[in-house]
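Students often ask why we bother encoding 3D structure as a string. The short answer is that it lets us treat folding as translation between two languages. Here is a chain of 169 residues written in the first language.
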Amino acid sequence: MRKLLDLLYDAAAWLAALSMVGVLAMVLLSIVGRQLSFHVPGTDAYAGYAMAAAGFLALAHTLKRNEHIRVTLILGRLTGKARHGLEMWSLTAAVFLAGLFAFYSVRLAYMSRTLNDISTSNDATPLWIPQIAMAVGTVVLLIAFLDEWWLEFRGRRDTAGSEDALHNE
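And here it is in the second language, the structure alphabet:
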């Protein structure tokens, strides 16, 4: 199961990376178009869709690599059962919020598809298409938080120490 979950997080990260390449392609196309006096409609919108996809699809991978910003002012001073209790409370809240986020983002994409909602810009893209990336990203984030909750519950969770918070690359 661990390998399958890690594969899911890595796949989402690769899709996020491809989305960043999409942002680059749209920006370069826009620049080249301006230099050569031609216009490709929708490049701004597609760059925005790709940027949103990159952000949402990278959330779970970032969480599992302990790269999310965490405020450990209180947590760093606790040990044993107190630390475990606060971690469980925090992860339970995170699972709840990620669940709401996933539910409503999936619902948004579904409603956009049902209502045939399209972009108001000149590209007229059906909005459910770019919204799928947000829905997938939030569902994978929910799975990652459930994974973290389960690992903490069983006492097998890897947590970043206070010295890791100072680590810069």
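Translate back mentally: The radius of gyration is 20 Å. Keep this in mind for the problem set.
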